[in-house]
Write a structure and sequence with these properties.
Elements: E1 2-3, E2 6-9, E3 14-15, E4 21-24, E5 27-30, E6 35-36, E7 42-45, E8 48-51, E9 56-57, E10 63-66, E11 71-74, E12 79-80, E13 86-89, E14 92-95, E15 100-101, E16 107-110, E17 113-116, E18 121-122, E19 128-131, E20 134-137, E21 142-143, E22 148-152, E23 157-160, E24 166-168, E25 171-175, E26 178-181, E27 188-190, E28 197-202, E29 205-214, E30 230-235, E31 238-248, E32 255-258, E33 263-268, E34 275-278, E35 285-288, E36 295-297, E37 305-308, E38 311-314, H1 317-338, E39 361-371, E40 374-384, E41 388-402, E42 405-421, E43 427-442, E44 450-465, E45 473-486, E46 489-490, E47 498-499, E48 502-515, E49 517-518, E50 523-538, E51 541-545, E52 548-552, E53 558-571, E54 574-585, E55 590-599
Parallel strand pairs: 1-4, 2-5, 3-6, 4-7, 5-8, 6-9, 7-10, 8-11, 9-12, 10-13, 11-14, 12-15, 13-16, 14-17, 15-18, 16-19, 17-20, 18-21, 19-22, 20-23, 21-24, 22-25, 23-26, 24-27, 25-28, 26-29, 27-29, 28-30, 29-31, 30-32, 31-33, 32-34, 34-36
Antiparallel strand pairs: 35-38, 37-38, 39-40, 39-55, 40-41, 41-42, 42-43, 43-44, 44-45, 45-48, 46-47, 47-51, 48-50, 49-50, 50-53, 51-52, 53-54, 54-55
C-alpha cells in the first residue's frame, strides 16, 4: 500500500491486520493511531504521520523505516510495537510520552532525532540500539532491561533533562559520543540485575551527577534492590562526575581499566574484590579512589605511573624533557649574549666578536628571542679591566613544554669575564659563572597543576674568533658547559606526589663563518652562517607518592643541532653592536633572536 496524498481521520488513519506493507510519502493525520497494524508490519515513511495517540502501533516483528525528512509525531508514543521490532530512524520521531515503546529484542538504528517528554526509547530485554544522531527526553533518554547492547557513535548524543541518560538493568555500552543528563542524575544507571557482568567502554564523554552508577539498595532507596553484579568500565575518553563521584559501582567484583586518566570525580568500586588495571596509554593526571582496589595491575603501566594512598598518579615525561631542553637553550643564550671580547685597547675590529672597545669599560648586553613559539630574554651588565672583569646577568624563559604544560624559568648569575688577543689577531674570550633561580611548571589541575623548584647553576663558556682576512672572512667558535641542580618539586594537581632534586648537565659547540662588508658612514655589516650543536644529560626523575616511588628517564639525553643565519651591525669608532639571528633545528622548529650590546 502506498500513500502520497493526505489521509485525515478522526480515529485511525490506516488500520489493518497482519503483514501490512505501507509506504507513506504524504501526510497521515489521525485522532487516535496514525497506523494501526498487527504482526509483520513493514512501514517506510518519508512523509508525516501525526496522531493523537500512537503514530505507529503494531504487533510482533514490525519493520519501520523513517527516512530522512520523515516525521512520526504522536501525543503518546510515536512508535509502539511488540517484540522483535526493527526500527531505522533517519528523520524525526517525536512522542508526547515515549519516542519509542517496544517489547523484547528491539533493534534500533538512529541517525536522526528522537525526542520525547518521558522516555526517548523504552524496551524490554535484549535491546540493540545504535545511535549516531540525537536521542533526547525529559526523563530517561534510553530505558531498557537486561542484556542491552548500546552503541553511541562519535556524532551521537544521548541526553536526558531530569533523569538518567541511560537506565538499564545489564548489558554493554560502547560510547564514542556524548552521554549526559542535563541535571541531577546519572549518565548511565544500572538497576538490579541477575546478569553477572556488564561492560561500559568509553571513547567519548560520559558526564552526570554520578557518571556511572548502580542501584545501592536500601542505602539509596528503601524500596530499591541492590545491584550486586559486576561492572567493567574501560575508559579511553572522558568520565565526569559533576557532584564529585565519577563511578559508584556498589557490590560485585567490579573492574576499572584505565587507558585515559581523564576521570573527574571519585572512583568508588564498592564492596567485594575489585580490580584496577592501568594501561600504557595513560596520560598525566590523578585519579582518586574511595578505597584501595583488591587487585592492582600495573604490568602495562608506564614508569611515570604510581598507585598509593588511594590515588593513581601519572607524571608528564614530556614536561620534564622540555624542562631539560630549555636548560640547554639557557646556556647557549647566555654564551651568545655575554661572550663580549676583551682585546687590547688598540684593536680596531668592528664585528661583535672582534670589537676593540678599550680597557676599564662597563658593558651591557640584552637579548630577546622566540623559538617555536617560546620566548626568552636576558640582560647582562659587566665591568671589565684590561684582561678580566665581572658581570651580573638576569634571564627568563617562558615556554610550552608539552600539551598543556608551561614553563617559567628565572635565573640570576654572577660571573667572571675575561679575554685576550692571540697570535695572528685572534681573540679569546671566556666566562665562568654561578647563580640561582626558580623553575615553575604550570598546567591545569586536571593535568599536573602547578609546582616550582629552586635551581643552582654553575657554568663555563668561551669563544675564539679569528681576525678578518683581507677579504673580510673570519671564523668564530664557541663552546660552553653548564650544570643545574633542580630542587624538589611538588605538583598541586598530582595528589601530593613529589619529585626529587636532580642534576641536569648541558653544553654546546657553535661555529660561524662570517663576512664583513663596509657600508656608508663607517658602518659595517657582517653576515654569518653557522651551526649550533647542543648536548643535554638530565638525571632520571624520582617521583614519590605516600610510601611508593618510581623513577623514570626524561628521554632528552643526546644531542641536537640547529642551523643559524644572520648578521651583525656595528660602526667604526662607536661602542655598540647589534646581532640578528635566525635558527632552524633538526626537528623542523624555527625561531629568531635579537641581541644588542654597548660599552660605556
Amino acid at each position: 500500500m502506498r500513500n502520497s496524498g493526505l489521509i485525515d481521520a478522526d480515529v485511525d488513519g490506516i488500520s489493518a491486520w497482519d503483514d501490512l506493507t505501507l509506504t507513506n510519502e504524504g501526510r497521515i493525520e489521525a485522532g487516535d493511531d496514525g497506523v494501526d497494524a498487527e504482526d509483520g508490519l513493514i512501514l517506510t515513511n518519508s512523509g508525516t504521520i501525526d496522531a493523537g495517540y500512537w503514530a505507529v502501533n503494531a504487533g510482533e516483528d514490525a519493520d519501520v523505516t523513517n527516512a530522512e525528512g520523515g516525521e512520526l509525531i504522536a501525543d503518546r508514543a510515536a512508535i509502539d510495537v511488540l517484540g522483535g521490532a526493527v526500527i531505522r530512524n533517519h528523520g524525526l520521531i517525536d512522542g508526547g510520552y515515549n519516542g519509542i515503546y517496544a517489547d523484547d529484542s528491539l533493534e534500533l538504528t538512529n541517525t536522526g532525532r528522537i525526542e520525547a517528554e518521558d522516555h526517548g526509547g523504552e524496551a524490554g530485554d535484549d535491546a540493540g540500539i545504535t545511535n549516531s544522531g540525537s536521542i533526547r527526553a525529559q526523563h530517561d533518554a534510553i530505558n531498557v532491561d537486561e542484556r542491552a547492547t548500546i552503541v553511541n557513535a562519535t556524532t551521537g548524543s544521548i541526553v536526558s533533562q531530569h533523569e538518567d541518560a541511560i537506565d538499564l538493568d545489564s548489558g554493554t555500552v560502547l560510547n564514542y559520543g556524548l552521554i549526559r543528563p542535563v541535571s541531577g542524575e546519572a549518565a548511565i544507571d544500572f538497576d538490579d540485575s541477575e546478569v553477572a557482568v556488564s561492560t561500559i567502554t568509553n571513547h567519548g564523554t560520559i558526564s552526570g551527577a554520578v557518571a556511572i552508577n548502580v542501584a545501592l539498595g536500601e542505602d539509596e532507596d528503601p524500596q530499591a534492590i541492590e545491584n550486586s553484579a559486576a561492572q567493567v568500565v574501560v575508559n579511553h575518553g572522558r568520565i565526569i562526575g559533576t557532584d564529585g563521584t565519577a563511578l559508584q559501582l556498589g557490590a560485585g567484583k567490579d573492574q576499572i581499566d584505565i587507558y585515559s586518566m581523564d576521570i573527574e570525580g571519585l572512583v568508588d568500586l564498592g564492596a567485594d574484590d575489585d580490580t584496577l588495571i592501568v594501561r600504557a596509554t595513560v596520560q598525566n593526571g590523578v585519579v582518586y579512589f574511595a578505597s584501595d582496589p583488591e587487585t592492582i595491575d600495573m604490568d602495562e603501566a608506564p614508569d611515570t605511573a604510581i598507585y598509593d594512598d588511594m590515588k593513581l598518579v601519572v607524571a608528564s615525561r614530556d614536561s620534564f624533557a622540555g624542562m631539560d631542553a630549555h636548560v640547554t637553550e639557557h646556556a647557549l643564550g647566555l654564551g651568545k649574549s655575554a661572550l663580549v671580547p676583551m682585546p687590547d685597547a688598540t684593536g680596531d675590529g668592528l664585528a661583535f666578536c672582534e670589537q676593540g672597545l678599550g680597557d676599564g669599560a662597563w658593558w651591557a648586553t640584552g637579548s630577546v628571542g622566540v623559538f617555536d613559539g617560546d620566548g626568552s630574554g636576558r640582560l647582562s651588565l659587566g665591568r671589565d679591566g684590561a684582561r678580566a672583569g665581572v658581570f651580573l646577568s638576569y634571564g627568563r624563559i617562558s615556554a610550552t613544554l608539552s600539551d598543556g604544560h608551561d614553563l617559567i624559568s628565572d635565573s640570576t648569575l654572577l660571573g667572571l669575564h675575561g679575554g685576550t688577543g692571540l697570535p695572528g689577531g685572534a681573540q679569546l674570550v671566556g666566562i665562568a659563572y654561578l647563580g640561582f633561580g626558580t623553575i615553575e611548571m604550570r598546567s591545569p589541575l586536571t593535568a599536573s597543576g602547578r609546582g616550582s623548584a629552586e635551581t643552582q647553576i654553575l657554568g663555563l663558556a668561551g669563544s675564539v674568533a679569528s681576525a678578518p682576512s683581507a677579504s673580510g672572512v673570519s671564523v668564530v667558535a664557541r663552546a660552553g658547559i653548564e650544570h643545574q641542580r633542580i630542587g624538589e618539586m611538588t605538583m598541586s594537581g598530582l595528589g601530593g606526589a613529589s619529585f626529587g632534586a636532580r642534576d641536569v648537565t648541558s653544553g654546546y659547540v657553535s661555529a660561524e663563518l662570517r663576512m664583513e662588508h663596509g657600508l656608508a658612514a663607517g658602518r659595517v655589516i657582517t653576515p654569518f652562517l653557522g651551526l649550533d650543536v647542543l648536548f643535554t644529560d638530565g638525571e632520571d626523575v624520582t617521583m614519590t607518592l605516600g610510601s611508593g616511588s618510581t623513577r623514570f628517564a626524561t628521554g632528552t639525553g643526546g644531542s641536537s643541532a640547529q642551523l643559524i643565519l644572520g648578521a651583525e651591525l656595528g660602526s667604526t669608532g662607536q661602542p655598540w653592536h647589534l646581532r640578528i639571528e635566525g635558527q632552524y633545528d633538526d626537528s623542523g622548529a624555527a625561531g629568531g633572536s635579537l641581541t644588542a650590546g654597548l660599552r660605556f
